[in-house]
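queue> pop job 88
queue> type: inverse folding (structure -> sequence)
queue> payload:
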């Protein structure tokens, strides 16, 4: 058996592949935040880390976010024509990505690391990178480098699943996902992914000081404060939240809900439903500064729903997480439930669904909802009113749980251990001290370091006419180093 690799910053580098990234242009949801926060924590732990993503066309092709964290902005020549964000012009960008990223990673990232005696862990995210992940395995195999790279492909959601060649992807990489819920969904695709949980930065483990909580509570002015944040998507069960608010008001409780949605058209249905239920809705625009935003809330007329239509800073959101009697993260389909975990990190009371929130234990650290019946929310609120000691205990336990999911812990306890397992499955060789600074005389130490496709500039070349976006080429190519990998 090959020796078990010892992964340290001297023997392992990371390459992250994702359409989304840290630029505002490249952030459409939680994936861009995940890539930035994971990359920064890896860098802080000393690992050389590269992120390739579809970046802002007006920013440099390559930047340093940390001395160990380099970001490579891809498809910029296309993004210059598609200005409305990372997924504007998605199909042309996908063609460019598939045509250029595998060769760049092979020649410019994996090969130099191998020459220094290092292994590269490639972590690709979401369906847009699935075909390129297979092509990367092909390129590495052709270059004699497949045993120098651990390849993971991760699913954060089910979007684009119908466009993935699952058999080939499972052959060329180790498929991972973020929760047992997603693992069970993916069994239906004929694969059995490894679960590596999502994480949060350690800085999120904080509670808003009591005086700031009191100011926010006074500004809203009701006995019970609810807060809900997320896209206007039916999956987020907005109608359930609105109907629960109406039920609470009907029962005579003084309850107000502050909401912040996105730009999705489902908002029209939800707000119409709230209006029919007799709820008063006030659209509000708040200043960016947290203290000024709270002061502005205090000047507003009374409403049942304050619909915030402006940017909310992380600080202001954390204020609401801590101050609210309940944060309704009550999704019906949530692959991981990052919002619920962030609520818990702030010492808040999260009402979550029963899908990907593996971290949630009913009435120990969160309220776990089993249905889409608004009565369930109302009953839980009444229980917490009658048992304030339970609510206090939940807030403390919530923060203790969140500490187990900070990125530093996830990397040390989950990611690195899983990488050792995958390295053995993919027959990736442990680094050899004699290989550092190797020249042509010992190039065969890794099965040959044949030159792969020519290096490409960070912006990526214009794709040739033969480039294909999704359909894999015929033939059984790209076999990882060793059987069963």
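queue> result:
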């Amino acid at each position: 058996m090959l020796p078990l690799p010892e992964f340290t910053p001297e023997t392992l580098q990371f390459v992250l592949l994702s359409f989304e990234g840290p630029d505002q242009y490249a952030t459409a949801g939680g994936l861009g935040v995940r890539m930035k926060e994971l990359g920064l924590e890896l860098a802080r732990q000393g690992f050389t880390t590269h992120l390739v993503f579809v970046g802002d066309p007006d920013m440099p092709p390559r930047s340093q976010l940390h001395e160990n964290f380099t970001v490579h902005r891809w498809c910029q020549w296309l993004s210059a024509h598609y200005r409305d964000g990372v997924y504007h012009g998605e199909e042309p960008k996908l063609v460019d990505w598939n045509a250029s990223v595998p060769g760049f990673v092979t020649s410019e990232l994996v090969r130099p690391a191998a020459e220094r005696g290092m292994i590269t862990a490639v972590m690709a995210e979401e369906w847009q990178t699935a075909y390129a992940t297979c092509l990367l395995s092909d390129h590495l195999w052709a270059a004699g480098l497949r045993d120098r790279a651990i390849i993971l492909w991760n699913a954060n959601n089910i979007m684009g699943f119908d466009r993935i060649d699952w058999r080939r992807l499972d052959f060329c990489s180790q498929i991972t996902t973020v929760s047992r819920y997603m693992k069970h969904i993916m069994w239906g695709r004929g694969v059995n992914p490894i679960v590596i949980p999502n994480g949060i930065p350690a800085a999120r483990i904080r509670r808003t000081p009591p005086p700031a909580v009191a100011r926010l509570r006074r500004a809203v002015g009701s006995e019970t404060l609810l807060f809900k944040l997320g896209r206007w998507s039916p999956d987020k069960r907005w109608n359930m939240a609105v109907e629960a608010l109406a039920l609470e008001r009907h029962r005579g409780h003084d309850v107000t809900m502050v909401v912040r949605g996105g730009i999705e058209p489902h908002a029209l249905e939800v707000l119409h439903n709230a209006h029919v239920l007799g709820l008063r809705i006030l659209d509000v625009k708040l200043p960016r500064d947290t203290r000024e935003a709270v002061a502005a809330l205090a000047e507003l007329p009374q409403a049942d729903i304050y619909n915030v239509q402006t940017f909310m800073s992380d600080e202001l959101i954390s204020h609401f997480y801590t101050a609210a009697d309940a944060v309704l993260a009550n999704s019906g389909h949530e692959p991981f439930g990052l919002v619920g975990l962030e609520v818990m990190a702030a010492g808040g009371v999260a009402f979550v669904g029963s899908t990907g929130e593996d971290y949630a234990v009913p009435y120990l650290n969160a309220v776990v909802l089993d249905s889409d019946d608004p009565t369930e929310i109302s009953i839980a609120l009444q229980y917490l009113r009658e048992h304030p000691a339970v609510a206090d205990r939940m807030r403390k336990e919530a923060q203790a749980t969140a500490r187990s999911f900070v990125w530093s812990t996830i990397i040390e306890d989950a990611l690195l251990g899983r990488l050792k397992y995958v390295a053995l499955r993919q027959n990736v060789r442990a680094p050899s001290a004699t290989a550092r600074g190797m020249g042509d005389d010992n190039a065969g130490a890794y099965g040959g370091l044949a030159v792969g496709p020519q290096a490409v500039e960070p912006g990526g070349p214009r794709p040739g006419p033969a480039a294909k976006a999704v359909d894999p080429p015929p033939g059984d190519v790209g076999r990882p180093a060793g059987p069963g990998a």
